[in-house]
Specification:
- By secondary structure, the chain is mainly alpha-helical.
- It has one domain.
- Helices cover 81% and strands 0% of the residues.
- The chain has 7 helices and no strands.
- Bound molecules: zinc ion.
- Zinc ion binds next to helix 2 and helix 4.
Length: 150
């Protein structure tokens, strides 16, 4: 009886869709093999090695072109890492829609409800420029991705 009431609430109330949508998004990351991918480990190691080498090069007063190249490689690794994370987030949203639909839960509506909740909590700095410096796409980019379905 409680399960039926919960199921009805789930299908009628968007806020009730947030929990299954959040779980589906995280399951989608696992299903798509996002954690532990070789490229993520490689980029992380490259970024850390670049940072350590750069600090060492500065401490040893290495020639500035060497320090500059090290900085460029380190920043490039970080940006590639962030782009990869952003791509993974968008892919997880779309795969979560599929998983939820298969479970009889309106996937697009559920993920949309979750993103609407996220939009209210998204800091303004992230909405404006955060996509450049973080591994999470903006909520508006995720909503656009959800609408376009790619
Ligand atoms: Zn995610």
């Amino acid at each position: 009886m409680v399960l039926i009431a919960w199921w009805r609430a789930l299908l009628q109330d968007d806020t009730a869709l947030i929990l299954p949508a959040t779980l589906a998004h995280e399951i989608a990351h696992q299903a798509l093999g996002h954690p532990g991918r070789r490229i993520l480990r490689l980029l992380t190691h490259l970024q850390c090695a670049g940072l350590a080498f750069g600090v060492l090069a500065m401490a040893l007063h290495a020639p500035w072109p060497l320090i500059l190249v090290t900085a460029v490689v380190t920043v490039a690794a970080r940006l590639c890492l962030d782009r990869t994370y952003c791509h993974d987030e968008l892919a997880a949203d779309l795969h979560a829609v599929t998983l939820l639909d298969r479970a009889g839960i309106p996937g697009r509506r559920a993920i949309g409800a979750t993103l609407a909740e996220d939009a209210a909590a998204e800091p303004r700095w992230h909405a404006l420029t955060g996509w450049i410096f973080t591994g999470h796409p903006t909520v508006s980019a995720r909503l656009r991705n959800l609408r376009q379905g790619r």
